[in-house]
Amino acid sequence: MPTALQSNPLSERSRVLSTAVVEAAKRLELGSTELNAIIGTSQPSASRLLNGKYFIAEGSKTWELAAHFIRLYRSISSLVGGNDELARNWLKSANQAFDNRHPLELVKRVDGLLHVCEYLDAHRARV
Questions:
Q1: Across-strand partners of 95?
Q2: CA of 41: how far to CAs of 38, 68, 76, 77, 109, in Å?
């Protein structure tokens, strides 16, 4: 059985969020190095998470950032009609709204992750 990032028994919520993070990372073709920068965990922990051997502790800062990462993925996905290739391209392309920086670089900081999520939410509201 995989170990957890928490001292409490593994909660169902922890399992669900961890699974969602792994699925979103795979769809966006993010490796453990990129994922660890986004959700604020170590690179080895991110690697174990991607391999199903680690779970995100409910209530931790990593938990909060992971929830925003899922928000990011869901927003991008809804804007591109579920096309993961378009989602990856958007995330890895320069964007004038972000001073020609790539959203992927921005989301590696907490303020950038929140800013990109808010930007996407604003555009989803128009659709």
A1: 101
A2: 8, 14, 23, 24, 12
DSSP code at position 8? S
Count of CB atoms situated within 10 Å of the CB of 33: 10
Q: How far is residue 43's CA from residue 73's CA, in Å, rounded to a whole number?
A: 20
Q: What is the pLDDT of residues 10-63, one digit of tens each?
A: 789 999 999 999 999 999 999 999 999 999 999 999 999 999 999 999 999 999
Residue 49 CB partners (closer than 8 Å, separation 6+): 18, 21, 22, 32, 35, 41, 55, 56
What is the C-alpha separation between 62 and 22, in angstroms, rounded?
14
